[in-house]
Each structure stands twice: as C-alpha cells, then as structure tokens.
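Chapter review. Work through the record for DUF4268 domain-containing protein before attempting the end-of-chapter questions.
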Amino acid sequence: MYSKAEATQLRQAFWTTLGQYMAPVLSAEGMPANWINYKTGLKNVYFRMHADTQRATIGIELTMPDAGIRALFFEQFEELKTLLHETLGETWTWEPAAHDANGQPLARIYAALAPANLFSRDDWPALISFFKPRLIALDAFWSDAQYAFEALK
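Structure tokens for DUF4268 domain-containing protein:
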C-alpha cells in the first residue's frame, strides 16, 4: 500500500510520462494539443482518462447539470455513433445515465482496460498503449464531429 504522498507522486509521474509520449503528436488539424487536458470547446463535454489500481478508462463525459440538455447531447453523440466507432476501430460502452465518483450525474461513452494498475510501473506500457491510440482517434473523430454540436451551444 502506498502513502497518500507516494500515490500522488506515482499518479503525477504516470500522467507526465503519458504527456511526454503524446507531446510530439499533432492534433488531427495539425496543431499541438494538450492531450492530457483536452479541450473540446464545448462546456461540460470532456474527453477524460482515468486509471487506478483496478482498471483504466478513456471516454467522453457529458456533465451538464440539466438532465434534459445532457440527454440532447447524448442523443447527438448517438447520431454520430457509427462515425465514432469507425474512427476508433472498436465499439465503446454507452451509458446515458451514470454518476461520477462524487455522485454527480453524467452521461458517458467509454472504453476500459482491466486489469490495469496505475501504481505498478510494469503496467505503464500497457496503459500508455491503451490511452494513446484512443486519444488520437477521439481527436480525429472530434475534428469532424464537433460541428454537429454547433446548434446545441
């Protein structure tokens, strides 16, 4: 078991390492990207990565406080499901109603890798190999799909 400080240090080291692997990769539009804190340009629409002692996930999270607006955005993503899955090269899990670690409602579309342990440096290559191509594919998807959300801004 790790102390809180050790866990924080390992977590920071992993995300820094992933950021370094991603730094030379340009976005689908040929621009440098902040891959770890990806900006979608839409309020309450996030590309999120998470890893802990059990698994890793990457996905799209919709965190609008209003359930109706969140549902509209989720429906718009459903319209783009074929494009998303073709761009990703795999099928992701779709959850129209979920909750985050703090109990806040959200909708999400994600892929998971298990078992995976962020705190085991031996797992880092597998975690990076899981996150990197999916993050690049999400960016490629978003470079086309973002325009479908203009009317919902």
